Amino acid sequence: QVQLVESGGGLVQAGGSLRLSCAASGLPFSVYAMGWFRQAPGKEREFVAAIDWSLSNTYYLDSVKGRFTISRNNAKDTVYLQMDTLKPEDTAVYYCAGDRWIAAITNFRGNIGSVSAWGQGTQVTVSS
Q1: Is the confidence at residue 9, as pLDDT, over 90?
Q2: How far is CA 46 from the centre of its chain?
Q3: β-bridge mates for residue 50, sequence order
Q4: pLDDT band at 52 (very low <50, low <70, confident <90, very high)
Q5: Burial level of 86, CB count in 10 A (0-12/13-18/19+)?
Q6: What pLDDT is attached to residue 56?
Q7: Residue among 122, 121, 118 at smallest CA distance from 24
Q8: Alpha-carbon dihedral sign for residues 5, 96, 9, 58
Q9: Which of 21, 23, 64, 77 is an S-S bond match for 29, by CB 3.0 to 4.6 Å?
Q10: Does position 42 have pLDDT exceeding 90, yes or no?
Q11: What is the percent of the chain where pLDDT is above 70?
């Protein structure tokens, strides 16, 4: 059974930092592309960041470039999202996701079923 379990969310003031973690089990993590998405109240889920299985390539939503960093540890089956200089507009539920194909993550258009594995989400709230 595939499981992605996020942790690290919470409440932080604007300008602060959080580090999200996602522990994976039940899938061949070392050959899966992994990503982070977020969904704010009343808005559609959107792509935030992705990293390929080889750690060679990373991808980011334009509004988080230079502030967020995605990384992974294949020995620990874990993917991370370091979020710095947080802004109130970053407030959302953040979801970890995985798929064999990086394009399934980076080309996400709102169809949950187009990405093979999802976590349950962790709340990030940035106060002004």
Answers
A1: yes
A2: 10
A3: 35, 59
A4: very high
A5: buried
A6: 80
A7: 118
A8: positive
A9: 77
A10: yes
A11: 100
- Extract the tokens encoding 2: 């595939």
Residue 68 bridge partners (DSSP):
83
Q: What is the pLDDT of residue 55?
A: 78
Residues 98 and 76: their CA atoms lie apart, in Å, by 15
- Give the C-alpha distances (Å, rounded to integers) separating 44 from 32, 92, 93, 111, 125: 24, 11, 11, 10, 17
Q: And the tokens for 60?
A: 């980011």
pLDDT at 8 over 90: yes
Mean pLDDT in residue range 60-83: 97
